[in-house]
Specification:
761 residues, alpha+beta, Rossmann fold, eight-stranded mixed β-sheet, six-stranded antiparallel β-sheet, 17% helix, 33% strand, globular
Length: 761
């Protein structure tokens, strides 16, 4: 009997070893799925057009087996061809620079077209060249310096430069080189046209060095420009402690300006400057709090009016203003309120006939739609789009044909409601027409003259294809290229599986993907890891092929896990009601939907083991991961939270105020610090000590609470790492993999596995 029991135990142990993963070989295989290695296995995922002047002609680079070639597209001729004779240019260039040049790896990445496509110009090393396409002659050019500095902005007609010096604005006449001082009242922390940089880090041992950029908005006729006077005198600082400075043994303190929720914000005053008169006029409004309103100030085509939006603090109202360029008198054209919040991404505005009419985006009927306003009276004329779908962007308005072109998702039934499609519709709301028919995600790039557009079409389970279409009716002009993923498929990589399940209410469809390891065996039982990012501004589940392969969950799947990504209720780009689940409720994190989804998937697939569920996330996803294991300790068994904003009172003002409103008791109730004592499972916290997006104090404070409750956890601090550590820190990537292998597979991972190639801190 004892011998039989011993034999059974040995067999079970052997089977456990046989079916477990996380081996050295798994790690080796996982390395090829790191994002920069995956990039070597695919070609031509996306056509990135470089438009020639303001025409529909463009060039792009197409990847070949051993390099790339430059392609020229002439839509009017329905022609796609190599932009020039690559072999001839390579030979001639080799003679000039005295080294070998491969025609498929020319030592420059960009070209400029000259004289109606007769010449191309490019730069190699510090030399400028021009190649005559007809005569096939290469000439070295005398360098023509464009000495525009970072604190200078050139007018559209090229005659003037506006520049910043000693906190004030100046103007330079490029024909006479004469300079004019336009302002004299700019001072430190209350200056003109200097762009606000929330993430600028200052070494406190040196102090802030005045090295301004410039941010001005020129009128189309170059007669005027708009600039902001930014008052940062009440701005408060956050700090970073750099234990490992570049030199010396003494640690350094760094700072950056950022308001926390509820604190005083920087203030903006808008000014319009007249180039000929050398005068300024202040737009007659109270200073605007520094809140992103959804779109930047812009000019009407006739240069007579500046239009801009103002978002109220805590994002519950928005106004559209027209300001007279001569007098600065501002007129409120549209005012809109929301009971919850106005999503800054759902704000959009385009003008018709210099503001005679306005196309405005709003979620007032429960979905993001287009509305037509009278720009003179501010009266609503009509709602243009209607239905249970989401307008994502106003792309173009054809004034002559009274036609709007816009991007929307969810209008095509029986398709993923997040897929973006391009449509046109008449201003009277009739004739809505689909211009991108494929059941897929469409990434659109428009020609400057809006005669045509490039459609990069793909899904996570459909390789990309790029085509050129006519804008007026979507008719196919030319197929440009199709991606080559043969090498990726040869690794055994599997397309993510798309799925639809029911949310916590048992009614609402929610969407996600499952990523399997290349060695997937449906006869085995796998732990499942939830890769969460419930930030209400984002769509977590990738829709395009590119996002489906350039990520940090593919290597994790490869060491023996099924990874799931889900967009639960409260996330973006669905109905207003779907989105509002997260309003003043970020602690919801969509977890009830994630748990419901994983359980439904386990009912369908026997290989999913709901007794071994992990979760990881970064930034807002780091908050999710820690919150999930603390709030649902009986479901989630292991969590890795990197760079998490664990208490929204410590986060930047923008994000929490958008979705949590004014600080109150709900901030504390939903803080991870408040529920730290709930920890049962295994938790790893990771943070970079130079993270100026989510300050590392957030993780340190959660760690302090876990210590106070006498909880075991892992704390990994990456020296000199910023917020981008999940992509660039090989150590953080490996430790995350090790953590899940150890705690969900219950096996020891390979000791200190080393990635042979990695962009690293």
């Amino acid at each position: 009997m004892k011998k039989s029991c011993l034999t059974i135990l040995i067999l079970l142990a052997a089977l456990s070893t046989l079916f477990s993963q996380g081996t050295y070989e798994d790690y080796q295989r996982a390395e090829q799925f790191l994002h920069f290695n995956v990039d070597k296995l695919v070609r031509n995922l996306y056509v990135n057009p470089n438009w020639v002047d303001s025409t529909s002609n463009f060039w792009y680079r197409t990847e070949r087996e051993n390099g790339h070639r430059f392609m020229l597209v002439l839509p009017s001729k329905n022609e796609v061809k190599e932009a020039f004779d690559h072999r001839d240019l390579a030979n001639k260039l080799a003679q000039e620079i005295h080294r070998s040049v491969n025609a498929d790896s020319l030592p420059f990445s960009g070209i400029r077209w000259k004289d109606h496509l007769k010449f191309i110009q490019f730069q190699v090393d510090s030399f400028n060249f021009q190649y005559d396409l007809n005569r096939k002659k290469l000439a070295r050019l005398t360098p023509q310096k464009d000495d525009l500095k970072k604190n200078e902005s050139r007018s559209p007609d090229g005659k003037w430069i506006a520049f910043v010096k000693e906190y004030n604005l100046f103007l330079k006449d490029l024909q006479t080189n004469e300079e004019f001082q336009l302002t004299t009242d700019g001072v430190d922390h209350c200056d003109y046209a200097t762009p606000l940089d929330w993430y600028k880090i200052v070494d406190e041992s040196i102090g802030d060095i005045y090295d301004p950029g410039i941010s001005v908005e020129w009128s189309p006729d170059s007669k005027k420009f708009m600039a902001v006077k930014l008052d940062r005198r009440k701005a408060r600082k956050l700090y970073l402690y750099q234990s490992l400075p570049d030199s010396g043994m003494r640690a350094k303190i760094h700072s950056y300006e950022r308001a926390l929720p509820g604190e005083d914000l920087s203030l903006q005053e808008y000014y319009i400057f007249d180039v000929d008169k050398k005068t300024k006029v202040k737009i007659d409004m109270e200073p605007l709090e520094d809140i992103w309103p959804g779109f930047a100030p812009a000019w009407t085509e006739d240069s007579k009016t500046l239009y801009f939006a103002r978002m109220a603090r805590y994002y519950q109202s928005i106004d559209l203003f027209f300001a007279d360029a001569e007098t600065g008198k501002a007129r409120n054209v549209i005012h809109e309120d929301a009971h919850t919040m106005i999503e800054y991404q759902m704000v959009g505005c385009k003008l018709i006939h210099n503001g005679e009419k306005v196309i405005w985006m709003s979620e007032r009927d429960g979905w993001s739609h287009l509305y037509l306003y009278d720009g003179k009276t501010g009266d609503l004329i009509r709602q243009v789009t209607k239905g249970e779908f989401v307008v994502r962007e106003i792309n173009y308005i054809d004034d002559q044909k009274q036609m709007i072109y816009f991007t929307a998702s969810g209008a095509e039934k029986d398709r993923d409601p997040y897929f973006r499609h391009l449509y046109k519709i008449n201003l009277d709301g009739t004739g809505m027409t689909l211009l991108t028919p494929e059941d897929a995600e469409h990434e659109i790039r428009f020609a400057p003259d809006y005669s045509c557009f490039i459609d990069n079409c793909s899904r996570v389970d459909l390789k990309p294809k790029a085509v050129l279409r006519r804008l007026s009716d979507g008719r196919l002009i030319k197929e440009l290229q199709e991606a080559n993923i043969d090498k990726l498929l040869a690794t055994g990589w599997k397309h993510p599986e798309r799925f639809v399940v029911k949310a916590r209410d048992g009614k609402t469809d929610i969407y996600g993907i499952l990523q399997y390891p290349s060695t997937f065996d449906p006869g085995k039982r796998y732990p499942i890891i939830d890769n969460s990012y419930s930030g209400p501004h984002a769509v977590n589940v990738p829709k395009s092929f590119r996002r489906g392969i350039w990520n940090d969950w593919l290597p994790l799947a490869e060491v023996g896990f099924i990874v799931v990504r889900i967009d639960g209720m409260g996330t973006a780009m669905r109905s207003k009601a779907f989105h509002d689940v997260s309003y003043k409720n970020l602690g919801d994190i969509g977890a009830a939907d994630h748990i419901a989804a994983i359980r439904q998937l386990a009912e369908k697939y026997a290989f999913i083991d709901t007794a071994r569920v992990g979760i990881f996330g970064h930034s807002a996803g780091g908050y999710d991961a820690a919150h999930a294991i603390l709030k649902y300790p009986d479901f989630y068994k292991a969590a890795v939270a990197s760079s998490g904003n664990h208490d929204h009172r410590m986060s930047k003002d923008w994000w929490p105020e958008q979705y949590m409103g004014e600080p109150g008791d709900h901030y504390q109730e939903q803080s991870n610090l408040t529920i730290a004592g709930n920890l049962k499972g295994k938790l790893m916290l990771i943070h970079g000590d130079m993270d100026n997006n989510v300050n590392p104090a957030s993780t340190f404070r959660l760690a302090a609470e876990l210590v106070r409750h006498n909880k075991d956890f892992d704390l990994v601090i990456i020296p000199n790492a910023n917020h981008d550590l999940t992509w660039r820190s090989k150590y953080a990537t490996r430790r995350r993999m090790d953590f899940f292998v150890k705690h969900l597979w219950n096996v020891e991972p390979p000791k200190e596995f080393t990635f042979t190639e990695y962009q690293s801190f």
